[in-house]
Amino acid sequence: QVQLVESGGGLVQPGGSLRVSCAASRTISSIHLMGWYRQAPGKQRESVATLTSGGSANYADSVKGRFTISRDNAKNTVYLQMNSLKPEDTAVYYCNGQNWLGTWLSSWGQGTQVTVSS
User: CA dist 110 to 51, 92, 99, 106, 118, Å?
Assistant: First the structure.
């Protein structure tokens, strides 16, 4: 099973930027879809951004125009650049992948905490 380790979270003021990373224990170039997901206290986990191996990106309406997902296959890493952060972006951010059948690449890790607050 592939291990995914998220990092880069922290405390940032509203309007600030942050980049979180997801390092995979093996190559991700053949993985159909990699994505970032988040879970805020008392809420269900939601999809934030996904990126296919073909380069097609999809974003939640709440982050469109502010977040950008990218993947570096040579480094087996997926990134989420977050700009113009809002307090409602506060959550634990997780990454995961899916194959063509929709099967998850890995079990959910510990994620990385992002807190947007003044």
Answer: 21, 8, 21, 12, 25
3-state secondary structure of 79: strand
What is the reported pLDDT for 1?
78
Q: Where would I find the H helices in 14-107?
A: none
Whether the predicted pLDDT of 30 surpasses 90 = no
Q: How far apart are CA 25 and CA 116, in angstroms?
A: 29
3-state DSSP of 35-77:
EEEEECCCCCCEEEEEEECCCCEEECCCCCCCEEEEEEHHHCE
Q: Comparing C-alpha atoms, which of 2, 88, 73, 3 is closest to residue 38?
A: 88
> CA 45, CA 54: separation in Å to the nearest integer?
25
